[in-house]
Design goal:
CATH superfamily of the largest domain: Methylmalonyl-CoA mutase
CATH architecture of the largest domain: Alpha-Beta Barrel
Low-confidence stretches: none
Distance between the termini: 87 Å
Structural class: alpha/beta
């Protein structure tokens, strides 16, 4: 074929119906509807998005509803700030790490705020030096917010240079601590008004939704909470006499970015739509309505075991945040749960440099803009979040929904669903509930402590149910800890004996499944090798120092060998517990249970529940043996 002919070749146009026909062929008769999936936000995701799903969106960032960003040229002219939050044990360590980090790619001053910084006057000044003249702040002051603002305001000749944000969100730390201090707001308002005069370029009002994200909230809830909290603070400051443009110039929103890539980047875009709508109602000028966002990769999704997988999780989450259009970003070090190291902190910082310079994200203006899927998801998220915001407002606003416990119940419902999906392994956590390495011994998770005010600091407090910071992997990590304790007491790993029926090719698929299933709880699956007779099965059971066994084999082997072997083993070893790998047809299940099967273990089984039952029984038996 000549080059000219090749150029003139074209593909015949295909319709959506043509695609459906081909897709259903590959699904072997199943409907295309089976490819739809539901999210924790109750959004139904379609398998294919097309021009029919096109949404009305601004032609460029900085226009209309701000979904595409708040700056017309995106990061080309307004680069996001690398705001890695610095942890430290001493003032000297903080000073050294801050100055070293800005030489290696950090572009914002970000650190944990602790009491040690205020033991004497001038500590903050000494730590920062001339950095505030070159770099913006990115600090959640929490309960030390007032002290930090005062220290910055006292810096000679540099208070007007301070930019970025040093903010706090009282409602968020009330939710963390389990009380509402109603008299706190007066001091907080005074701090913000004073900072408006002495630190004019610094944003001091933070709306922090990470608290709710860490409790298990979905994207719709986070957005609705952000809108309701922002509206509450907005009204408070307007009522105190501040101008609309001054209030908006002091506000910044903080979000945690989870593992669902498209949902999370759409969350950032939807957040700007909501805030634009709210501020528009108040009559704010368009130049003041753009939402400034500080993002951090989620701790909710991170694991203690196989921590290097956290590198992939954080990279994915950081990528989503940037494509979503944030202004500040902190990427969690991969071992942050057990205490970050200099290596993990460097990798986290360099992940952002890679996104900037190797993925070229700072040179592409709104890479997600115009995507039928992203625009449709953004619009649906914004609509659902607006309804959720209205629900909160109808119930009296943020303080009232926390006092009544309604919001805690709403978040708990979503977290329970997430947890159930992890327990049944419908949602995989690599290295934890799937592909776990039972030889791995992980460090203990550090206890998170925040410099938040306590209820004793106030004269007028109302106790509420706190929103606990949790991680999805924690329940399985607790099982692994129990396994480690059993091993330390008995000098042997917890075990389940695998009675493998027939030849290797018959039992290997289910044996491999059971190895992975048991490993999620730190339990070793000891296989018998090929079992073809009752006698070999009995010898295997006699040699094992465990009372838990599972039959593995093909359905044919189960019918030809399994029933006879199980009946005898159950009769001769009445203290042993027997499981069956796989789920027989319903009419066959009663026969297996009558012969001694305690439970069928299959792909839809509740892995956590089964392993928890086994380990708890092992613990009790070991304690009884020790006492005897």
């Amino acid at each position: 074929m000549s080059l000219e002919n090749l150029r003139n070749q074209s593909f015949p146009l295909k319709t959506t119906d043509d695609w459906k026909t081909k897709a259903e062929e590959s699904l072997k008769g199943k409907s295309i509807e089976t490819l739809k999936s539901s999210t924790y936000e109750n959004i139904i995701l379609k398998p294919l998005y097309s021009r029919r799903d096109d949404q009305k969106a601004p032609d460029y960032p900085g226009g209309s509803d701000f979904r595409r960003g708040i700056h017309p040229l995106g990061y080309v002219t307004n680069d996001w700030k690398v705001a890695q939050r610095i942890s430290y044990l001493s003032v000297d360590e903080l000073k050294e790490k801050i100055h070293a980090s800005v030489e290696k790619g950090q572009t914002a001053i970000s650190f944990e705020v602790s009491e040690v910084l205020f033991k004497s006057k001038g500590i903050i000044d000494d730590i920062l030096g001339d950095l505030p003249a070159k770099f913006p702040f990115a600090v959640n002051g929490r309960g030390m917010h007032s002290a930090l603002l005062e220290a910055l305001a006292e810096r000679r000749g540099s208070s007007e240079q301070a930019s970025g944000y040093v903010g706090s969100d009282p409602i968020s730390f009330f939710a963390e601590e389990g009380f509402i201090g109603e008299d706190y707001f007066k001091c907080w308002l005074d701090d913000i008004k004073l900072a408006n005069e002495k630190l004019p370029k610094l944003r001091t009002l933070l709306i922090n939704t990470s608290t709710y994200h860490q409790g298990g909230a979905n994207a719709v809830q986070e957005l609705g909470i952000a809108a309701a909290t922002g509206a509450f603070y907005f009204q408070k400051l307007l009522d105190s006499g501040m101008k609309i443009e001054d209030v908006l110039g002091k506000m910044i929103f903080q979000f945690s970015i989870g593992s669902n890539f498209f949902m999370e980047l759409s969350k950032m875009r939807a957040a700007r739509i909501l805030w634009n709508k709210i501020t528009q109602v108040y009559g704010a000028d368009s130049k003041d309505r753009g939402m400034h966002i500080a993002a951090e990769t989620s701790l909710f999704t991170k694991t203690v075991f196989d921590p290097y997988v956290n590198l992939l999780r954080s990279g994915n989450e950081g990528f989503a945040a940037v494509v979503g259009g944030v202004q500040y970003l902190h990427i969690t070090p991969f071992d942050d749960i057990t205490g970050s190291s200099s290596l993990s902190e460097r990798i986290a910082r360099n992940t952002q440099n890679i996104l900037k310079d190797e993925a070229h994200l700072r040179t592409i203006v709104d890479p997600a803009g115009g995507s039928w899927y992203v625009e449709a998801l953004t619009t649906e998220l914004a609509e659902k979040a607006w309804q959720y915001f209205q629900q909160i407002e109808a119930k009296g606003g943020m303080l009232e929904v926390l006092k009544s416990g309604w919001l805690q119940d709403e978040i708990s419902t979503v977290y329970t669903k997430r947890k159930q999906d992890v327990f049944t392994r419908k949602q995989s956590i690599v290295g934890t509930n799937v592909y776990a390495n039972i030889a791995e011994v992980a460090g203990s998770a550090k206890v998170q402590t925040f410099n938040n005010p306590k209820s004793a600091d106030f004269t007028n407090t109302i106790n509420i149910r706190k929103i606990n910071n949790v991680r999805l992997s924690e329940p399985f990590e607790k099982l692994r800890k129990i396994s480690e304790e059993i091993e330390s007491k008995s000098s042997s790993k917890p075990k389940i004996g695998m009675i493998c029926l027939g030849e290797l090719k018959s039992y290997k698929p289910r044996l491999d499944f059971m190895r992975g299933f048991a490993a999620a709880g730190g339990i070793e699956a000891v296989d018998s090798g090929s079992i073809t007779s009752l006698e070999s099965a009995k010898q295997f059971v006699l040699k094992q120092d465990t009372k838990y066994f599972c039959l593995c084999g093909s359905n044919d082997q189960y019918e030809s060998l399994g029933h006879g072997i199980l009946s005898t083993l159950n009769r001769e070893f009445p203290d042993q517990t027997f499981y069956l790998a796989g789920l027989p047809e319903k009419e066959l299940q009663s026969k297996w249970t009558s012969e001694g099967i305690t439970q069928f273990i299959h792909i839809k089984s509740n892995c956590h529940e089964i392993l928890s039952t086994i380990l708890s029984a092992m613990e009790v038996a070991l304690d009884d043996r020790t006492k005897a």
